[in-house]
Design goal:
The chain contains three helices and no strands. Helices cover 70% and strands 0% of the residues. It is an all-alpha fold and 71 residues long.
Amino acid sequence: MSFDWSSYLTLAKELNESEESHSSGEAYRRSAVSRAYYYAYHLSKSHIESVGMDIPKRNPHASLIALLGEH
């Protein structure tokens, strides 16, 4: 089963829009940033893999950032 990572971006937008109406607004903002990051990470990872490149299993986030910077 494949997960639709775009739902994380949708959730990030919803959290960001609703944070002002909650006393724990910072928690909403932090969660929004986290969800947006994972959306961007998985979108980038999918693109890199679709062009035939492999992302090392060790430090995959740093490796992906490095690969994107190189290309």
